[in-house]
Amino acid sequence: MSFVAYEPVIGLEVHAQLRTRTKIFCRCPAAFGAPPNTHVCPTCLGLPGALPALNGEAVAMAVRAGLALGCAIRRVSRFARKNYFYPDLPKGYQISQYDEPVCEDGALDVPLPDGGSTTVRIQRAHMEEDAGKNLHGTIGRGVSLVDLNRAGVPLLEIVSHPDIRSAAEAAEYLRQLRAVLLFVGVNDGNLEAGSFRCDANVSVRPRGSAAFGTRVEIKNVNSFRFVQKAIEWEVAEQVATLAAGVRVEQVTKTWDDVASRCNLLRKKEGSDDYRYFPDPDLPPLMLTDDYVERIRSELPMLPAARRARYASELGLPAADARVLTEHPRLSDYFEALAARTGDAKRAANWVCNVLKPDVTTDGLDASFPVTVAQLAGVFARMDDGTLSGKLARDVYAQMAGTGDDADAVIDRNGWRVVSDAGAVEAACRAALDANPKQVAQYRAGKRNLLGFFKGAVMKATGGRADPRALDEALTRLLEEGT
User: What distances in angstroms separate CA 120 from CA 4, 29, 162, 169, 477, one per listed residue?
Assistant: First the structure.
């Protein structure tokens, strides 16, 4: 059997930590990075007599995310107990939502490399508490420790339908989902800290078949690259298994990036194994229409809408629009620069290709090497002929990380463009005199050598020759001998 005879069927479950200050059912801090077992109390330790109290801000963030993903918001939803026994779960059960989630039936548009897009349906988004973290082998072989700081941190689990058909598409879905959560401010998108992590459900089926194959779950992958590699490996493994006439088993695996393979973790549990039942300590969550509509009215313009506006109103290429909507602060910076300079295409080009490699993001925050006003000053000096494109980048490089404006950098380095026609023509004549062979080739019809002469003049003038004067002088001098 060949690989092309099979089609991957992929669904993703994303666990996104909600950006509340405290945990979902107690007042312990939800911040990452504290010493082990310092953000704990009787409630998140599961001690007898401790009762949960729902964090209202977690509810608001869950609704905000659901609305951004086009979900219907249940006016009445419930919390359930999901029972399993593991050291990182002190109570012996996790408080989650089961058959009545707060958000359901949404969708997310995912851009494709060919410029098109596909829609991935979202089955549900429900609130739950996180478990603690097991640490294996940190103080010796065979010894495990547990850090319960994360136990009780609020999560929104976002479950897609199995609509994804490739590993690359799965990675792009995650990028777009992360961007939506960043833009609405409910998640910091920090994969390294585990606040945005993914379980992938992967199966294969004969191409053209309507029936699903047996799915394998890959747990807790915290990198877009690792998700793509894990799915690619698992698809190949399942195809090889079926080709050998062996049945695929429903199991749970983990991704080992060092070995570049998935490893068996355990046999897959089903919902019956978890013995869900309504949590008797938490009443139904009841939301009013006014509450939901107030949150809807506060939603910002989302990445997909911004991309569409950038293309239709500003004429930007799809690739630039995608880069500009990766992070809300980057998008805001671009819009401010475009509005200030009146040149959206140039602003997009500079933000995507010059500025972005120097931008540092930290959750919802971003640090920029230059301010919008500083970069607008560079554009102004290009517009009035003071700077060439090359000199403009040199000015930017010296402005980065300082408060200097463009004029200060230009004056300090003597970088104003040589616009005197006589001086430019003299530099052009010197370049032609130094390269007689190339002059003869140009005049014999090899017109692409014009770029060679421009480079020679720019090198001789330190990149300061006025581009318009340079074009006019070079073309005239070269044509004089034809």
Answer: 23, 34, 8, 10, 60
pLDDT tens digits along 320-357: 999 999 999 999 999 999 999 999 999 999 999 999 99
Q: What is the DSSP letter of 358?
A: G
Angle between helices 167-183 and 303-312 (to 10 degrees): 100
The residue ranking higher by pLDDT, 258 or 192, is 258
Question: What is the spatial distance between Cα 229 and Cα 69, in angstroms, rounded to a whole number?
Answer: 26
Q: Which residue is associated with the tokens 């963030």?
A: 61
CB atoms within 10 A of CB 332: 14
Radius of gyration of the chain (CA): 29
| Phi and psi, residue 197, nearest 5° | -140, 165
Alpha helices in 30-187 (DSSP H): 56-68, 167-183
Is residue 467 predicted with pLDDT exceeding 80? Answer: no
Helix (H) or strand (E) holding 263: strand 261-267
CA 73 distance to own-chain centroid: 25
Q: Which domains does the chain have, with CATH numbers?
A: 3-291 (no CATH), 421-479 (1.10.10.410)
Helix (H, G, I), strand (E, B) or coil at 307: helix
Closest CA to 62 of 106, 120, 118: 106
User: Can you spell out the DSSP letters for 203-259?
Assistant: EEEETT--S----EEEEEE--HHHHHHHHHHHHHHHHHHHHTT-PPP-EEEEEETTT
Cα separation, 102 vs 107, whole angstroms: 15
Q: What are phi and psi of 212, to 5 degrees?
A: -85, 150
Element (H, E) at 294: helix 289-297
Cβ atoms within 10 Å of 445's Cβ, excluding its own? 8
Q: How many helices (H) and strands (E) does the chain have?
A: 16, 18
Digit-coded pLDDT (tens) for 11-52:
999 999 999 999 999 999 999 989 999 999 999 999 999 999
Q: Which residues contact 259 (CB under 8 A, 6 or more apart)?
A: none
| Sole residue written with tokens 């079926």 | 242
